[in-house]
Design brief:
Blueprint lengths: L1 H12 L5 H13 L32 H14 L3 H14 L4 H12 L13 H6 L1 H19 L7 E2 L11 E6 L4 E8 L2 E13 L16 E4 L17 E3 L5 H5 L8 E3 L11 E3 L3 E3 L1 H10 L6 E5 L4 E2 L1 H7 L1 H16 L2 H6 L12 H15 L4 E12 L3 E11 L7 E9 L2 E9 L2
Parallel strand pairs: 2-10, 4-8, 7-9
Antiparallel strand pairs: 1-11, 2-3, 3-4, 4-9, 5-10, 6-7, 12-13, 13-14, 14-15
Helix pairs in contact: 1-3, 2-3, 3-4, 4-5
């Protein structure tokens, strides 16, 4: 009976368990520390319940708890219920606030005496009273399994990352459809996926439009600061990394609101439901801590998409050729002081912190006069693409005059209008 019930546990969790999941477990185990400590004394079928700590907690690495949970799923699916139960007991003892692990542990205990009907197989009365919490935990389980089964092909990257400069040492991409955040390292050989994590987004989903809508924005953003955890409420966990929502495209579209962060979880929760925040992207504290230790403020792009499209890096070059030609035309015209060509590359609705296109043209003329023929060099150029109802490029570069060693860092937003690319925002960011 125990073997059959344990198998039913994973069947109830998801039909997605299989070879791909097993491979994902093995890979993630090599990344995470498999910590073990004294067995716990109980389990609960509630999101807030947890056994009291019985010993000093082991050092927790990012991704470690999830890797252990998925390994438990794998063991149960292989009808190795006793081993799964032992590992589940250790997991909830090490992470007593990991509510999904508590739920699985409780099911494995119940499977010793009766068949399981579903994940979180509690009495009808308890199920009715905790229907919302059970639904959230079941959805969290499905999202974790889905993301681990539907892995991006090796060597592929999100289509938004057309070109990153050496200053962009890392990059982040969020796939809301998989409740997943992907962390990349940018090396001399290109972007490399180094880790990925389960995340929660807004209670009302994605595509933020107005303040207070409890939605997570979609677009290309950048980490703007690293908030000291001591200045934050416990609700935000180990810290917070704000991003620059609303960006220039959001403002152009009349979007409002702010205060969108990547942040952690409160002490009572290891993770939150897939749809749980007021619009922020929320991670387990060990995962957030890894990101905080890794990324740099101002230079780390954060792409948030409904669903990421993964492509081979070499395919991106061909796709970005037309834009590179437009950017090169802008560079040559600015370097040569060709104001007519420059003006033609700015859209009629251009705006920069209240300046219109006419105001900006006058500023370009004044800059050309001050340069006195000195050429303009673009350094550390990066550009990221955002495509929804329109096609947009977010470009960042250092602008250095010949004979100088430093210069301002500029960011431009380009939009494709027919077959032409036009700038609708430009500003100095550093």
């Amino acid at each position: 009976m125990q073997r059959a019930s344990a198998t039913l546990l994973v069947t109830a969790l998801s039909v997605m368990c299989g070879p791909a999941l097993a491979q994902s477990v093995d890979k993630r185990k090599s990344h995470a520390t498999t910590a073990a400590s004294s067995p716990g004394k109980g389990a609960a079928h509630q999101r807030s319940a947890a056994p009291p700590p019985t010993a000093a907690r082991p050092v927790v690495r990012d991704g470690e708890a999830e890797a252990r949970l998925i390994e438990i799923y794998k063991l149960a699916g292989q009808a190795r219920g006793r081993e799964a139960l032992v590992k589940a007991e250790r997991l909830v003892n090490d992470h007593p606030n990991f509510q999904l692990a508590q739920l699985v542990y409780g099911d494995l205990l119940a499977a010793r005496s009766r068949p399981l009907r579903t994940l979180g197989d509690v009495s009808d009365g308890t199920a009715k009273a905790g229907a919302s919490t059970l639904a959230e935990l079941r959805q969290e389980s499905l999202m974790r399994l889905k993301a681990l089964r539907e892995r991006p092909a090796p060597g592929t990257i999100p289509s938004q990352f057309l070109a990153l400069s050496p200053r962009n040492k890392h990059a982040i991409a969020v796939d809301a459809s998989r409740a997943r955040l992907y962390l990349f390292e940018n090396s001399t050989t290109g972007l490399k996926l180094v880790s990925d994590y389960y995340i929660s987004v807004g209670k009302s989903g994605i595509e933020k439009s107005v303040e207070g809508d409890s939605r997570t924005p979609l677009g290309v953003y950048f980490v703007t600061s690293n908030l000291d955890p001591k200045s934050l409420k416990d609700f935000y966990g180990s810290g917070a990394l704000p991003i620059n929502y609303p960006n220039a495209l959001d403002l152009k579209r009349g979007k409002t609101g702010g205060g969108i962060w990547l942040h952690g979880t409160p002490p009572t929760q290891f993770s939150r439901a897939p749809l749980a925040s007021d619009g922020c992207v929320v991670l387990a504290n060990p995962d957030l801590e890894r990101i905080i230790r890794t990324v740099e403020v101002r230079t780390t792009p954060v792409v948030i998409a409904q669903s990421l499209t993964w492509v081979a890096p070499h395919s991106i070059k061909a796709d970005s050729k037309a834009f590179e030609e437009a950017l090169n035309s802008w560079h040559q015209a600015k370097s040569a002081g060709d104001l007519a060509t420059l003006a033609s590359l700015y859209s009629s609705d251009f705006s920069s912190y209240g300046k219109t296109r006419d105001d900006w043209t006058a500023q370009l003329r004044s800059e050309a006069d001050r340069r006195r023929g000195r050429a303009v060099q673009l350094k550390d150029v990066s550009y990221l693409r955002w495509t929804d109802s329109t096609d947009t490029m977010v470009v960042t570069f250092g602008e250095v005059l010949s004979g100088s060693r430093t210069g301002p860092v500029r960011r431009q937003y380009w939009m494709r209008q027919g077959k032409q690319w036009k700038i609708f925002f430009e500003g100095v960011i550093g």
